[in-house]
Amino acid sequence: MGLDFKEILTATMILFAVIDIIGSIPIIIDLRQKVGHIQSEKASIVAVVIMIAFLFVGEEILKLIGVDVNSFAVAGAFVIFFLALEMVLGIELYKHDAPETASVVPLAFPLIAGAGTMTTILSLRAEFQLTSIIIAIVINTIFVYVVLKMSNRIERLLGKGGIDVIRKVFGVILLAIAVKLFATNIQDLFNH
């Protein structure tokens, strides 16, 4: 069982689009202004721990409540679909609460390792090897850390227009991923 680089790349891109750390830069900057300092290291470490833990125990939790991975993946496809609609259309379907501190709560969870990310991780499990998903999670966390550290510079560099364009492009990619996830897993549901 060697490393499948195409799989790692696909999983990394999917998680990158779902985590949408570039699209979250305005939220991160807003947080920094409110709290003064963002604990990038702490937020990144907590996020990677949450994601990897969920990768391993998420399925057990589902079994406990009597849901199989395919059903969860179909539900995940809907969540990803709505996230993508938000990104493409520039509307807000999910309301974010204003946080008091900026490390674990708004950043690691739910901004980085939120419901969309958790759903995606389990949905990926239905299609990819564990090692590919873990590598994808680690790559994304490193990227998240860099973005958290350099959020001010990135915002100045891209400007509001640049960030909007990136969000829309990833939104379309996410829409396609949601459709594929739905199609793949809905067949498995009916084939049982």
Which descriptors would you attach to this protein?
mainly alpha, single chain, 192 residues
State the share of residues found in helices, binned by percent.
Answer: over 70%
Major sheet characteristics: none
Provide mean pLDDT, rounded.
84
Distance between the termini: 27 Å
Give me the strand/helix succession: HHHHHHHH
Q: Extract low-pLDDT stretches.
A: none
Structural class: mainly alpha
The radius of gyration is: 16 Å
What is the count of DSSP helices, taking H or I runs of 4+ residues? 8
Number of strands: 0
Number of domains: 1
Characterize the overall form: globular
Multimeric state: single chain
Main location: membrane
Pfam family, one: MarC
Subcellular location: Cell membrane
Organism: Aureibaculum marinum
Q: What's this, in brief?
A:
This protein is mainly alpha-helical and 192 residues long. It has helices at 5-19, 25-35, 40-64, 69-89, 104-112, 115-125, 130-149, 151-191. It contains 8 helices and no strands.
What does this structure look like?
With 192 residues, this protein is an all-alpha fold. The chain has one domain. Helix content is 80%, strand content 0%. The protein has eight helices and no strands. It has helices at 5-19, 25-35, 40-64, 69-89, 104-112, 115-125, 130-149, 151-191.
Topology overview:
Blueprint (H helix, E strand, L loop, with lengths): L4 H15 L5 H11 L4 H25 L4 H21 L14 H9 L2 H11 L4 H20 L1 H41 L1
Keywords: Cell membrane, Membrane, Transmembrane, Transmembrane helix
InterPro entries: Multi_antbiot-R_MarC (IPR002771)
GO cellular component, one term: plasma membrane
